[in-house]
Amino acid sequence: MPHLPITAENLRDWFDAPDVDNPLAGDHWWQLQSSALYGALQILRLAPPGPAQQQALVELRRAFDTVLMTLPAPADAPKSLRALAPFAPAPFDVVEAMLDLAELQADDVLYDLGSGDGRIVLSASRRGVHGIGIEIDALLVGQASERVAECPDYRKAVFLHDDMHNADLSQATVVTCYLLSSSMTALRDKFRACRPGTRIISHAFDIPGWEPDRIVATAAGPIFRWVV
After folding, report:
1. Which of 192, 202, 177, 28 is nearest to 116 (CA)?
2. Stronger pLDDT, 86 or 194, i.e. the higher one
3. Predicted confidence (pLDDT) per residue in 73-91, tens digit
4. Domain count, the chain
5. Is the same domain home to 158 and 223?
6. pLDDT score of 172 more than 60
7. How far is CA 57 from CA 49, 52, 107, 113, in A?
């Protein structure tokens, strides 16, 4: 397991180590999302909550992102594994700051790409906004959908089991993300095709080559906003 400080070089050395106990070395680097990275994230999430823990989580995501972008992807690597992001939910205060930055209106339709445990969509629903979460992990989709069924405040929330690359954003007026730089790069064309005026809100990772309309600082990293 990598030790702090977390850097892309440390992760790369660890993942490429000729270790018989490391099934993720060499050509199987893209499988990290479903195993080793999740393990590292879980360990960090057991640390005392606070700015230091959240900053460590962001650093791990950034380091992993660098590994993804610099190592050659096998031809048969699934697109969903090459360009998505590990499940590491944004802190609730960051979620609220993201929704504040979106300047939500009652008639907005929010799409959360990689919705994880559903907290962004559920929080938007509590504000009276219709939200759709797109998540590739069926277990997380099921858990989030159960919460919708249990609470009337979440009646405007819907969760879909799908790859975000397949998401139809034509009805979106707000798109939220907590992904990776590589993911944001892969999604640029999809963002560009959104209807004019759509607000794109991202925690910690920007859209390479796009100038944000606003940036809000938080203890867990910046939040970016673009208006299409």
Report:
1. 177
2. 194
3. 445 554 444 445 566 778 8
4. 2
5. yes
6. yes
7. 11, 9, 34, 19
